[in-house]
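ok new one. same drill as before - structure tokens go in, u give me an amino acid for every spot. 186 of them this time. try not to just spam alanines like last time pls lmao
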């Protein structure tokens, strides 16, 4: 099963994902490939596989991605091989944007996919982005805020939409969703 968490940067996807992985036995995440620079809190091979543009474009040519997209001028893509290996047998929790989610839902026919969108009010998002540990540059904050309306316009594509105003509550709700979907899945 693949559990997709979407929502704008700063919506808390990463914190929620880590907490779910702590609390659900056997739940894992999988790294995407990206051409962006690693940040201080990145662990290569775990948060992402960091590769060059040229390497990424070769992988596109070889058909190695289920989907890929450009974000903030960098490529991001979901590896067919890595996803197949993990999602067929266990629960994979993955943070993917709205375009990637649409592409994956269309492509993955024999892996169960649950899509969850985490919402956060725009004013709160701005405050969170400005206070991030890794101190994003001003122009990156503006880029991300501009993406807010676009991402919000896609929420009707999601199975579940949650307001992420309390970590513990959000995690409990998602655990209940996963339990329900595991029992009543297609
Ligand atoms: P960040 O650089 O902040 O980790 O991620 C930037 C954006 O890329 C986020 O919106 C994240 O959801 C998206 N992203 C991460 N991995 C993938 C992927 O494999 N495919 C797509 N389409 N987007 C991704």
């Amino acid at each position: 099963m693949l559990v997709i968490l979407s929502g704008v940067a700063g919506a808390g996807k990463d914190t929620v994902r880590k907490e779910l992985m702590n609390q659900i036995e056997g739940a894992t995440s999988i790294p995407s490939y990206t051409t962006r620079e690693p940040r201080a809190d990145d662990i290569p091979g775990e948060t992402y596989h960091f590769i060059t543009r040229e390497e990424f474009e070769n992988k596109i040519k070889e058909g190695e991605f289920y989907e890929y997209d450009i974000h903030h001028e960098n490529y991001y893509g979901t590896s067919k091989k890595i996803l197949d290996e993990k999602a067929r047998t266990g629960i994979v929790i993955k943070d993917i944007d709205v375009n990637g989610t649409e592409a994956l839902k269309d492509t993955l026919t024999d892996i169960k996919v649950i899509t969850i969108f985490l919402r956060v009010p725009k004013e709160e998002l701005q405050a969170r982005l400005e206070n991030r540990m890794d101190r994003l540059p001003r122009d990156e904050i503006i880029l991300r805020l501009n993406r807010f309306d676009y991402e919000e316009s896609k929420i009707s594509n999601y199975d579940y939409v949650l307001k992420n105003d309390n970590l513990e509550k959000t995690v409990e709700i998602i655990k209940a969703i996963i339990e329900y979907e595991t029992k009543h899945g297609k």
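The chain has seven helices and nine strands. and btw The helical segments are 13-23, 53-61, 80-87, 98-107, 122-130, 138-152, 167-184.
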